[in-house]
Structure formats: structure tokens, C-alpha cells
Specification:
With 321 residues, this protein is α/β, with parallel strands linked by helices. It is 24% helix and 24% strand. The strands form three sheets. Strands 10-9-8-11-13-12 form a six-stranded mixed beta sheet, sandwiched between helices. The chain has a five-stranded mixed beta barrel with strand order 1-2-3-5-4. A two-stranded antiparallel ribbon has the order 6-7.
Amino acid sequence: MNGIVYKSTGSWYSVKGEDGVFYDCRIKGKFRLKGIKSTNPLAVGDHVRFELETTNDVTTGVINEIVPRKNYIVRKSVNLSKQVHILASNIDTLFLIVTINNPVTTTSFIDRFLVTAEAYGITTVLVFNKIDTYSEDALDEQLYMQYIYNQIGYECLRVSAVTGKGLDAIKERMTGKVSTFTGHSGVGKSTLINAIEPGLHLKTAQISEQHQQGQHTTTFAEMYDLSFDAQIIDTPGVRGFGVVDMAPTEVGDYFPEFFALKDQCKFNNCLHREEPHCAVKDALDRDELAWSRYKSYIQILDGDEEHYRTDIYKDGKNQDE
């Protein structure tokens, strides 16, 4: 039988079969030996083939094949740096939820996510949430960040789960597609999903006053069927985001504004660092590119592993500054 993985709780998977019924499934033993270097061989959103077996009147499924993925979003496992963790697969649109404060979402975090999404062919929309709470200074910062990413070509939405502003625009982009919401803990993913689909009643929690960071309310990724012909994958909050398996010469290709200038550099393998006649550095000197993006690029090139693991809430301020 064919099915889609809707939830993973470690060794068991909730799979919706083509008959519309949910089955508790496990992986066939040999399946783990296929050399997938991830902490989770199967991810929510995976299309699988499975067979049913009944023991003591209990019917469960055994997954024996995974259909090749259209795409997936992946990050380094924070605890096992040589392995990766697949957050979700077969995604049509990824909504990256951003908050200016309460908690802070750094440009470094955003850029690492966007680079990975570009590498894996996933359309990303930046969603600036909690705009009803912003001071004048925070609003100015939000609009400036929106300007930076709009200029590069990323769609940006401004929303508030409390007032309802921008929710229709999100629903419009979700209809007929599989979407995932992701971002730091506390940016309001679950609250936003509840506002879009009130019947889900996803668990939410308040921001920690001491550290201005979110509590993990989602412990496992899970897919939901929505009432307006859409599916959503809710993922646990992400503290840090490590970029996976990119050669230095590749990284710039996943910064669209750098890639657009690549053919104007003197050297076709230019890393946009010390090389002469570099179109990217020339554009930076003319303030035609955002320095925050270049800083993120250099951090990724340098393999700045500690940066993505850093607790950005420790000092209560944005460490990108």
C-alpha cells in the first residue's frame, strides 16, 4: 500500500494510507542499513510503500520502501555533528517565521535557512510575525529587513495571529499545497497555525521572561490536513541551524544576489574574498548588496560551527550586530 508519513515519534510512524486510514508503522530492519546519514531515516512528508501485518488482532504496517523525495529541508544534528536531521520532506512552500524581538531572529539564522532551502529547491516565504507588538524602532528594523529580502527576490509577509492581519495571504499561498512553518521556538508558529485553522488546537506556550526565548511546545514534526484544501507540517522550534555538505565554491550560488554577479567576477571560481576584480565585493562597496548577507556568507564559508550553536538569547540581544 502507498502512504504518506504524517508523524514520527522515533521508532513508530503514523502513515496515512491511500485508503485514507492512518496506520502505525515501523521500518523494516534492513531499511536502516541503506547508508542514510541522518538521525531520522524517515521524515514527515515522505511518501512510502508499506504492507500490513496482524498480530494478536492488532494490525500494524511495515514500511519497506521510501519513494524518492522531491526535496527536503535538512540541518546538522546539534548533538551529532556528523549526522543530519531531516525536518520535513516533499514541501511545496516553506514559511520561515521571523520575529524582530521576543525572541530575536538573527539575519545569520535566516540566511542559513535560505541557503539550505535554495540548495534543496524549496520555495521560501519570510513571515514577519507579531507585528502588532512592535515599537517604532522594532517596526523600522522589520521594514528594513523586509526591504533587504524583497530586493533579493524573497516574498515577505507581515502578519499578526492576534489581529488576523496577513492570515488570508498565508492561506492563499497554502491552498492546494504542502507547507511547513519553521523558525525559532517562541516565534509563534503554533499560535499562527491555530489562527489559520482554529480547530487544530495546537499547544502553545508563553515566552520565557528571563531569556526571551520560546518553550518547545512541538516535540515531533507532524502533518495536518486543513479545511481549505491544504496540508501543513508543524515542526519543532529550531535553536540553531547548521548548513550541511556544501563545497566553498557552491555557497555563493545559493545567495541569489551573489550568483547574479558571478559571471562578472574575473575568476569563475571566485569566492568573493581576497580575489581581485570581484563583482560581489565591488557591489558591496557601492552599497548595492546587504553587508549582513555577506557576513552570513563568510561565516558559512569559514565553517563557523560555533556560531549556529550559540544561544542567541544569552545576552538578550542580537549577536549579529
